[in-house]
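Following up on my earlier thread - several people asked me to post the actual chain instead of describing it. Fair enough. Here it is, all 122 residues.
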Amino acid sequence: MLEKNKFIFIAEGVLRGIILTTILFLILASIMTFTEVNNSFTSVFYLLTTLVSIMYGAVYSAKKIQRRGWLVGLAIAIMYMIILYVVSIMSNNSTGMDSSRIIRTVLALVVGTLSGMLGINL
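Reply from S.P.:
Thanks for posting it. Predicted structure:
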């Protein structure tokens, strides 16, 4: 029973991260409706949104599970990035992995791992 609860908490962490991402992207879309935003700002915003969402989900789940925070955070980062990649493919973006996607993925894995460790110690 305890193992099943761990997966539920991990799924909740990923879901919370995706909900936070959706909210932040809606805010960006509202801002872009009324003002002109350059591409460098949106690129940085996408990266920060990804990292903050993974951090939030990893801290939440690790705090609930209270064991192996680094592994919980890493699992959340992997699942989040897979979901983000699938959504990106569904929205007709390229399927290739260029340098910016690789850097974003590596940063996401590192932030997820460190956030999971932080979540246990909070």
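Residues 86 and 95 are 9 Å apart (CA to CA). That should answer part of your original question.
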